[in-house]
Amino acid sequence: MLRYINLSLKGGVAIKKLVRIIVCFLLIISGVLSGSLYVVGAGGEEQLVFIPIKGMIEPGQASFVERSLDKAYRMGAKKVVLDIDTPGGLIASSQKIKSLVFDSKVPVDAFVSGEAKSAGVLITLSAEKIYLNSGASMGAAEPIPNNEKILSSWRSDLESAAEARGRNKNIAAGMADRDIVIENVKDKGEILSLSAKKAVELGMADKIVQGRNGLLTELAQKDGVYYQSVEINPGWGEKLAWWIINPFISPILLLLGFAGLLVEGFTPGWGVGGTIGIVALGIYFGGHLMAGVTGWLAVFIFFLGVLAILLEIFVIPGFGVAGITGMGMVIWGVFLSSTSPAQAVISLSVAALGSIILLYVMIKVLGRRGMLNRIILGTKLDSETGYTTPQKGLDKYLDAEGTSITPLRPAGVAEILGDRVDVVSEGGFVPPGSPVRVVLIEGGRIVVRPTKVE
Asked: E strands within 72-150?
């Protein structure tokens, strides 16, 4: 086995690798962050802004709603309408959108163009007025997992939102709690879901309209103004960010990042592995930044962790404080950047398991086929196969005593008989300045043992 996998990577080569990593990492993140919101529509004296809430509700969409509400206020919009068509999503994200709606400086109505299910119910109930498209529906808001603590918290959110807008809180709670009984509406054991007609009859919605044009006509008559509609849509960067933070995509990106850096750590120079790793990590963190899930602190901590691990591999022999600290910071950075602690555990588990499998394949499979011959010496040189190593000049050190100059863990440098020689400790770590004695000369290998000071 080569000692510490080609220590010639130290110095200038290692520094160049680290510089490349820094530059590539920042370039990838800046590229992902270049996407932005864009606006479709025409302006007028009285602007009505549509903000679409489509698909799964997750942290990226909550951040999009926050930026859109702020933009609508700066545009001087008279009203905001949330165009809702969602099967649900994360409770935490819907709670954030609920708070944004209640705190909005511009009045917010809801238009359910398709369905408002699960977490979408809370967002819908937060609006001042609720309009449903013909054929739309709302309800079926049972939380998953459905334990007593989560159900109680989620039910209170629905009840408080409905009550604040003058709607029936019991009906709102019945959309989440199977045990609630509402006469002529819901029996025990059922989860309530309402059609557009039924929602209006029960006072959970204000009116049924025919599409956006019907909604604009209704609002113009009710408010006595002519509205010019404007729609704020997510830019390509935000759409990409929502895809990146998908719970199925983010672990794969993290795995590619870890595996790429692992391959790069075992190969000289800079290659495809390092490039793939940096690109994957740049996309991972850039997407989470753009989605508003995390901040630059997570990126900084993660990057410092990777830097510490690379220094441990390329510069500092053995595995010590830098490596352990680096691993801890990498884990911390992933937790700070993830959408939830559970997602962080999943992502780290996938990345760690995948990296271990890759390492096994590199050593066991590719090595047998000769593909790693440029990285690791695959030929065993021993006396049984006819190989000998010159020992001339080393016999004089046998049984001689000296002092370790560098830490031996286990390899290092010691001064013996006035000479600086490369040695290997017989056991574990030997600190510098320790007295040692040569106990074995094996080919060109000098083995030493710490001696006790009398």
From this structure: 79-86, 108-117, 130-133, 137-139
Helix runs in 49-90, H state only = 59-75
Contacts of 312 (CB under 8 A, 6+ apart): 319, 320, 322, 323, 326
Indicate if the alpha-carbon torsion angle 213, 217, 222, 223 is positive or negative: positive
pLDDT score at 122: 95
Angle at 189 (CA atoms; ends 183, 191), nearest 5 degrees: 80
Lowest mean per-residue pLDDT among 68-72, 96-100, 176-180, 247-251: 247-251
CA distance linking residue 201 with residue 272, whole number of Å: 63
Which residue type, as a one-letter code, is found at position 137? S
pLDDT 10s digits, 329-347: 888 888 877 766 777 788 7
- State whether 204 and 274 are in the same domain: no
Q: Strands, DSSP E only, in 285-390?
A: none
Pairing status of strand 79-86 against strand 108-117: parallel
Number of residues written out for the chain = 454
Q: Does residue 214 sit in the same domain as residue 108?
A: yes
Same domain, 289 and 186: no
Same domain, 51 and 151: yes
Peptide bond into 432 cis (omega under 30): no
